[in-house]
Specification:
This protein is mostly helical. Helix 27 packs across helix 28.
Length: about 950
């Protein structure tokens, strides 16, 4: 054979191999629907073959038709097909790094590297996956064609028709479960292939509730009557209250929450705090029972929901909203919104973390394992058991988390013994370990995974081994979980309450929220409620998000019942608040907010309608976040809702009325931005009844005043200042206008420019008012005590207080009395005292300071932390040296004094601006007078009218406004 033929044959071989690899790569990237469909095709014929036996028998013997069996068969077949249709994850949670797991790996998977693996090959595969999604050529060969997509869509639509038909057939044969399911999917279509029919849904649910008295059907019927959804039935709050009561008595948790919220807020009934506590307690008890039904430590808490407005910097945007000013800027939703507005995506964050973890950066590896474990970029502040934030949701992967945690832990504990309880023997721990780094924290996660069976087989002995390893380095999570294991006796022969309390105390000294919860539970079940309240309140302060609220609510409820004097306002309100929090957090079976968020980010009109509907249902149950989201999407961009059944052509008054209702209910739950928004609706006349403008403006001013009284909303203060300046809704008062403008600046420094422009306009207007003979205008030259602004009074008070304090200390006077919190913290009764307790408390406080610093480092924003690390690396690799930064700092310090503006300079500037405005007004007046004089001369020449000089002619509107200065 010639060399040319050999070369051509080799090229053909490599080309064939490349085509085969490309085909295998494309097939591996497709969603796993073939296996599901194959299973369906295998199972459905078997069911049909089994059902053919009676049919064949009817040809000869004609026995009685088994109607119940046929109805059950149709119902099960419908559920099976429906489960296949809804098995795919929502599109907004898709991650380019995740690949579907297969039970039967292909031949190439044994040779190709894992896309989530480590090293340069794994990075190359991840880059190839991203390029495949970005470029047309990769999508052309890897993705389905247009005709294939249409065939797939037709196939899914055919399956949806099959589901509906089978459910209708089963319901006609008397299957009541099929009747309820049919009504439910008509109200909440699982996908765009199912029709949405609220009228049919109401009829089906009504029929089902009539026949069975089912609580779930009654709860949805109550929603129809409470909201008048889709105009199926008119709004009838009494009928809604009746259905909610029936459903709540039947044990429906959502109906119990809705009923408690109605009694608490007085919706359709009189306010009754006692009944609100009863129904919220029932809902919280059910949530707690679901929590305790999980593995040791309870069910993993659902990820927190997200306010859509927080992602945009608040209802009024960044800076103007309370949600994005002050301490609220550290909220995960606000930080996530800022990161996304800067063009950063979670895929980019994960890719940067993986890149650095593969280089051997242990801090990146630990944080990456933490992200994979909790399934979110952001974790809650209370520790591992407090859950994570839904705004940073990423695919959860326990396997990857275990790999990264083991990679870190093996530096300290290179091997595991055959018997995990003998890990203290020599040879299983590296020698001369002075700084364990992230190994103890990684051990806490590994122990938790073995304790709960997360990604690994549940093994209590392995869990205790890892917890004891981490406890050697005083890791607070390990101490707490060791306490749980010793308390519950999970390892045979190791149950001791004294040892458990010692472990809980060590973890509580490091300010771990769940350790305080465990100590509080210990005292709660012993009847020592005063000490239990101390621990539970500390747990809430340190970030506990579930159990502490439940037990505090129980103690407050017990105090109410012991008092036997009706329902004291304070404990009753606290009990309602805590029970409500627990009921809304424990939504493992019916997470409406998460479902609504997934539907909203699907990007389809059907998805947005479903999101609005689910937010609406959750809002009726009292969820403030759902009320905020529903009002925000109805208010922020009405073009989103056009061509839907909520607003067929344009935003109507009904839509504005619904938004106003939700804003009002959200404002009643301490949403200050919502309170300002209610004032805006009354000012602009949106969703309010027809009434005189003056009356609407008065109501708007009252809402602005309520928001301003919280001392948080600079926008509400500015609105009040503008209303006082113009005399709209309130009497015109330039002094009160200036006071509110100053207070807005004092509340939010970002309001400097609008406040400055408003003050310039206010002084100019006041000057013109004074020149026209007005009284009580603003004075530029002296300050009256009664006319001093709020900000100036506060500043003067601080100067007086600081001066008196310095004088007292200089004269040897008494030292200032510590505040109440400090005195309580130092001198409150800590229970029984014993010799050595003072030393233990001192050491505990010392450990607490160290733990607080470690916890603060652990709770850093992952995005900001990665950004700072990247900037530090860039600075280290740049051409600037330390002397350049020193010189820049000196220059910055030299100009720092120039930034402070003297008050006299500001006053002179304001006077100059006012004089300029007055000059412009004078020139304009002269021009107007000259034009009017010319016009009058022309009229006299034409009609011979009487010359009135500069005085307006009869009939001129300016004649009534003319002022003659005497």
């Amino acid at each position: 054979m010639s060399p040319r033929k050999n070369a051509s044959s080799r090229r053909a071989t490599w080309l064939a191999f490349g085509l085969v690899a490309l085909a295998a790569f494309s097939a591996s990237a497709q969603p796993q629907t073939d296996s599901i469909e194959t299973t369906q095709l295998e199972l459905e014929p078997s069911v049909q073959q089994n059902d053919q036996v009676p049919n064949d028998a009817t040809v000869y013997s004609e026995p009685e038709f088994d109607q119940g069996a046929e109805a059950t068969r149709a119902y099960k077949s419908a559920l099976f097909t429906l489960s296949n249709l809804t098995a795919h994850p929502p599109s907004h949670t898709h991650d380019v790094f995740s690949q579907p797991t297969t039970t039967t790996p292909s031949l190439l998977s044994a040779f190709l590297p894992n896309p989530q693996g480590q090293g340069p090959l794994g990075s190359a595969i991840r880059i190839a996956l991203k390029l495949r999604q970005q470029f047309f050529l990769f999508r052309l060969f890897g993705g389905p064609s247009g005709s294939a997509a249409r065939r797939k869509d037709e196939e899914m639509r055919g399956k949806a028709i099959k589901v509906v038909d089978l459910l209708q057939h089963s319901a006609e044969l008397g299957n009541l479960d099929a009747l309820y399911t049919l009504g439910y999917i008509s109200l909440f279509p699982p996908s765009s292939h199912f029709p949405s029919d609220p009228i049919f849904a109401y009829d089906s649910l009504l029929h089902h509730a009539t026949l069975t008295g089912n609580a779930s059907s009654q709860a949805l019927l109550a929603f129809f009557h409470a909201t008048g959804y889709a105009d199926v039935v008119p709004i009838d709050q009494a009928q809604a209250l009746l259905y909610y009561t029936f459903a709540a008595q039947g044990g429906h948790k959502g109906a119990q929450m809705a009923l408690g919220y109605r009694y608490w807020s007085g919706i359709g009934t009189v306010e009754d705090c006692g009944r609100a506590v009863e129904w919220y307690e029932a809902a919280a008890d059910e949530a707690m029972s679901m929590f305790l039904s999980g593995p040791p430590g309870g069910q993993t808490l659902p990820q927190t929901a997200t306010r859509l407005s927080d992602l945009d910097g608040g209802v009024f945007g960044p800076g103007a909203s309370v949600a994005s000013t002050g301490l609220n800027v550290i909220k995960p939703a606000v930080k996530a919104g800022l990161a996304q507005s800067a063009g950063e995506t979670w895929d980019d964050v994960l890719e940067y973390y993986i890149f650095n973890a593969d280089r051997g950066e242990k801090d990146f590896a630990y944080k990456l394992g933490k992200i994979y474990y909790q399934g979110s970029i952001y974790s809650s502040m209370g520790g591992i058991a407090s859950g994570s934030e839904g705004v940073g949701r990423v695919p959860q992967d326990f396997h990857q988390a275990q790999l990264y945690f083991l990679q870190i832990a093996r530096q300290v504990w290179p091997r595991d013994p055959a018997n995990p309880l003998q890990h203290n023997e020599p040879g299983y721990k590296a020698e001369n370990i002075k700084q364990a780094g992230y190994a103890p924290k990684s051990a806490a996660y590994l122990g938790r995974m073995y304790l709960r069976g997360e990604g690994v087989k549940q093994d209590y002995a392995m869990a205790m081994m890892w917890f004891e390893r981490g406890a050697e380095f005083d890791d607070r999570e390990c101490h707490n979980m060791l306490g749980v294991m010793w308390r519950d006796g999970l390892v045979p022969g190791r149950q001791d309450m004294k040892i458990a309390l010692v472990q809980f105390t060590k973890a509580a000294g490091a300010e771990l929220a769940e350790a305080h919860v465990n100590l509080g539970k210990y005292n709660y079940y012993r009847g020592e409620f005063k000490l239990a309240v101390t621990y539970f309140e500390a747990a809430v302060r340190f970030g506990s998000t579930f159990e502490a609220h439940f037990y505090l609510a129980k103690i407050h409820t017990l105090n109410i019942r012991i008092a036997n004097e009706g329902s004291p306002a304070g404990p009753c309100a606290s009990a309602v608040s805590f029970f409500k929090f627990v009921a809304e957090r424990g939504v493992w079976d019916d997470d409406l907010l998460a479902d609504a968020e997934a539907a909203w980010y699907s990007g389809t009109e059907r998805g947005k309608e479903i999101a609005i509907l689910k937010w609406w249902v959750a809002a009726e149950r009292g969820s403030e976040m759902a009320q905020n989201n529903l009002a925000y999407v109805l208010d922020q961009d009405r073009s989103m809702l056009r061509l839907t059944r909520f607003a067929p052509i344009e935003a109507s008054n009904d839509t504005a009325l619904l938004a106003l209702t939700q804003w009002t209910r959200s404002a009643a739950q301490r949403n200050i931005d919502a309170l300002v928004k209610v004032g805006d609706y009354y000012y602009h006349g949106l969703g309010v009844p027809d009434e005189p403008e003056a009356l609407r403006w008065e109501k708007a001013a009252k809402y602005y005043q309520s928001a301003a009284d919280t001392q948080f909303s600079a926008l509400a203060m500015w609105n009040l200042g503008w209303m006082y300046e113009n005399g709209i809704g309130v009497p015109q008062d330039f002094h009160l206008a200036k006071r509110h403008y100053d207070l807005a600046l004092e509340t939010n420094k970002e309001a400097y420019l609008p406040v400055l422009l408003s003050l310039v306009k206010l002084y100019a207007r006041s000057l013109w008012y004074t020149l026209q003979g007005g009284k009580d205008g603003l004075n530029l030259w002296k300050y009256d005590a009664d006319k001093m602004s709020v900000a100036e009074r506060a500043r003067l008070k601080r100067e007086i207080d600081s001066g008196s304090k310095d004088a007292s200390q200089k004269d040897g006077g008494a030292q200032p009395i510590p505040n109440k919190e400090e005195s309580i913290e130092e001198f409150e009764d800590d229970g029984k005292w014993y010799i050595g307790k003072a030393s233990e408390d001192f050491r505990r406080r010392q450990r607490g300071e160290v733990a607080r610093a470690a916890a603060a480092e652990d709770d850093d924003d992952p995005v900001q932390w990665a950004r700072e690390r990247r900037n530090a690396e860039n600075e280290r690799d740049s051409d600037f040296g330390p002397e350049d930064y020193f010189e820049a700092a000196m220059k910055l310090g030299a100009h720092r004094g120039e930034e402070e503006v003297d008050e006299l300079t500001e006053t002179i500037l304001l006077v100059a601006l006012c004089a300029l405005v007055a000059l412009l007004i004078y020139v304009r007046t002269r021009i107007v007078r000259r034009a009017r004089g010319q016009e009058q001369e022309q009229q006299q020449d034409q009609g011979g009218q009487r010359d009135l000089g500069v005085f307006p002619l009869p009939g001129d509107p300016a004649r009534q406004e003319w002022n003659i200065v005497h």
